[in-house]
Design a protein that fits this description.
With 341 residues, this protein is mostly helical. 38% of the residues lie in helices and 4% in strands. The structure holds 2-acetamido-2-deoxy-beta-D-glucopyranose (5 copies) and copper (II) ion.
Length: 341
């Protein structure tokens, strides 16, 4: 009897909490359970193996035909990102779109590759705060991680050899094929950029950009007062004058990751974006009543544009149905159903 009263009291308390009320207002779907997204180095050897095996499984399944040149299911995701790139970066839907993209990738690993876990994230600050470098990150372990740097190509200036045009450009330390790790044997069929080519996975580690990934930079991002300030401070160039968390990660890994269109060709893309998504969720949780449903920003890079709202629909092409931004604001609700630890 006492136990029963206690449980009822708990239910009342939960119903009165502002977050639950907000959820009820939004009509968001209840999740029977939540996936737990963890930092790569906090996974057990078994969990690391399961994730890598699931990604390799996607790389062994045939493409479903969005883009003729895509060879595998893994390429299908890269194809969708390439196609939508001009609509999903430097705009208000940048964070919601990538949150949904990772959700669909994670669901596909589960439904088509029997994956039981959740997408891991890469908290780069744990590397650069200590070493001012990503070189020794467990993420790039040649045996238990994603393989390391690309083979050094002197004077490497990007896949089109033209990145010397970028302000502040410093050449990386790699540039060629990644010779180690589980993805050394996988050739991509899309990219660089929007051009389909058969090519190895490339990286060009560049510690010149490591500072942009420090915990001090994360703190400067999460202290932003509005979604508008937050999304701009997080995304980086060219909507900010200097490098920030998002472009910092792409530049620090380099090569494949450095291309705005084709960067999901590097499996590390998903870990980088999971960390950005986690930082967004940290920021949301700092003031849930104000931030759980706070979005803003222009809807396209070129006019005519409007400020996005929760009703703005996120395209996944043939990967998944359209969902409004409203449905991806709360990771604890359908269709997302995950939490970060
Ligand atoms: C995206 O796909 C559409 C339809 O196939 C095509 O017309 C368009 O050129 C593609 N855009 C890019 C950037 O690949
Ligand atoms: C480099 O060349 C590619 C392909 O022609 C082009 O899309 C890109 O904008 C160029 N980048 C710079 C920084 O000039
Ligand atoms: C993979 O791409 C590289 C070029 O990046 C090429 O030299 C190699 O022959 C390709 N391998 C296969 C099996 O197509
Ligand atoms: C911190 O964020 C503000 C935007 O509010 C920006 O102007 C400033 O440059 C950032 N500081 C650093 C060190 O990145
Ligand atoms: C869009 O919303 C932001 C943040 O609320 C605001 O600063 C900006 O002026 C709005 N832009 C337009 C075009 O309404
Ligand atoms: Cu992107």
């Amino acid at each position: 009897m006492l136990g029963r009263i206690h449980r009822l009291a708990c239910v009342c308390f939960v119903l009165l909490s502002p977050t639950v009320l907000l959820l009820a207002q939004a009509g968001a779907g209840f999740c029977p359970s939540l996936g737990t997204r963890q930092e790569w180095r906090d996974l057990t050897k078994g969990q690391k193996d399961q994730y890598i095996s699931a990604v390799k499984c996607l790389q062994a399944l045939p493409a479903t035909g969005l883009v003729k040149a895509a060879r595998t299911r893994f390429d299908d995701f890269q194809a969708a990102h390439i196609n939508l790139t001009d609509e999903i970066h430097l705009v208000g839907q940048f964070l919601p779109w990538h949150r949904r993209f990772l959700n669909v990738f994670e669901e596909t690993l589960r439904s088509e590759c029997a994956f039981k876990g959740a997408i891991p994230y890469w908290d780069w600050s744990r590397d650069v705060d200590v070493f001012n470098s990503i070189n020794n990150s467990p993420v790039f372990d040649p045996v238990t991680g994603f393989g390391g740097n690309g083979i050094y190509i002197p004077g490497y200036a990007g896949p089109f050899n033209n990145l010397t045009n970028l302000p502040g450009w410093v050449p990386g330390t790699g540039g060629g094929c990644v010779p180690t790790g589980p993805f050394a044997s996988y050739n991509l069929s899309l990219g660089p950029g929007t051009i389909p080519t058969n090519h190895c996975l490339t990286r060009a580690f560049n510690d010149e950009y490591a500072w942009a990934l420090s915990s001090a930079q994360i703190a400067n991002t999460t202290k932003q007062p509005t979604f508008e300030n937050f999304r701009i401070e997080l995304e980086g160039q060219p909507i900010t004058p200097t490098m920030k968390l998002h472009d910092g990660g792409h530049f620090a890994v380099g090569a494949e990751m450095l291309n705005t269109y084709s960067s999901p060709g590097d499996p590390v893309f998903y870990l980088h974006h999971a960390n950005l998504d986690r930082i967004w969720w940290i920021w949301q949780q700092m003031d849930l009543p104000e931030r759980l449903f706070d979005v803003s920003g222009r809807s396209s890079v070129d006019p005519p544009f409007v400020n996005i709202t929760l009703a703005f629909e996120l395209k996944m092409l043939n990967l998944a149905p359209l969902v409004p931004i409203r449905d991806v604001m709360d990771p604890r609700s359908q269709p997302l159903c995950y939490t970060y630890i």
